[in-house]
Specification:
about 240 residues; alpha+beta; Arc Repressor Mutant, subunit A; Chorismate lyase; 2 domains; two-stranded antiparallel ribbon; about 35% strand; elongated
Length: about 240
């Protein structure tokens, strides 16, 4: 068990690329955020391995968010953004971490709700629904893509009164809407070609997909949100309590 906890299989030795990965990880601890890594050739000579072995090690470190591409260089990445799983906006969550949130509008349209969306928002199939799609930024870095659906009948002035660069939750509070609870599902996915282009990530990079239906204090659905976050830049936390038996 001790060997397994250290990353060593119960039988056999650590793969060579994994040993190199651990050594590069130690180098990263000494580098500041945004500092370019030594080249693959330099790492290969330092550790006495092939460049292919170094490349595999760096590929895994990138998937884990320890390094990232910057132009033609691979640089040390900063710490992941930590979002608590609470009923709060993306804007509020980033500001708590001293980061600067940002949003860029991609799509703002009115469409007819299909059966699944209608069921989630408790409207009739075909009812008008606003779809708001926005890129998410943290300190000018693209980190996610968010699609929000709301009933057009309930929020008819959304298209004219809401600034999509700002917090939707703050806008809803201004209308007197009190958010009370939500159901949220989290899974890992690969981004579609369109999402890869918008977020500016690699098609091989795992993404965190969150689907949320938020309700007000009367139990009425307010929004259905599909949020896609870069797996190398985000982690989520939750406070758990014991269920009474």
């Amino acid at each position: 068990m001790a060997a397994a906890r250290a990353g060593v299989p119960e039988r056999g030795e650590l793969p060579k690329y994994f040993q190199v990965k651990q050594k590069i990880d130690a180098v990263l601890d000494e580098l500041g955020q945004g500092t370019p890594l030594p080249t693959e050739r330099e790492f290969a000579e330092r550790f006495g391995v092939s460049r292919m072995t170094v490349r595999q090690a760096i590929r895994e470190l990138r998937l884990e968010g320890r390094v990232q591409r910057s132009g033609r260089s691979t640089v040390a990445a900063g710490p992941k953004l930590v979002q608590p799983l609470i009923l709060a906006s993306y804007t509020e969550g980033l500001r708590r971490q001293g980061r600067r949130p940002g949003r860029e509008l991609v799509v703002f349209e009115q469409l007819a709700a299909d059966e699944a969306l209608a069921a989630g928002l408790r409207v009739e199939p075909g009812a008008p629904v606003f779809h708001l799609e926005r890129l998410l930024f943290a300190d000018d870095e693209r980190v996610g893509l968010e699609s929000t659906y709301l009933s057009a009948a309930r929020f008819p002035a959304l298209a004219t009164d809401f600034d999509p660069r700002t917090s939707l939750y703050a806008y809803l509070r201004g209308l007197g809407v009190v958010l009370a609870d939500a159901d949220e599902r989290i899974e890992t996915v690969l981004a579609s070609p369109r999402e890869v282009q918008l977020v500016g990530t690699s098609p091989a990079l795992p993404m965190l997909l969150l689907n949320r239906v938020t309700r007000d204090r009367d139990g009425l659905p307010v929004e259905h949100v599909r949020s896609l976050y870069r797996g190398d830049r985000f982690s989520f936390t939750a406070h758990l309590t014991a269920e009474e038996s």
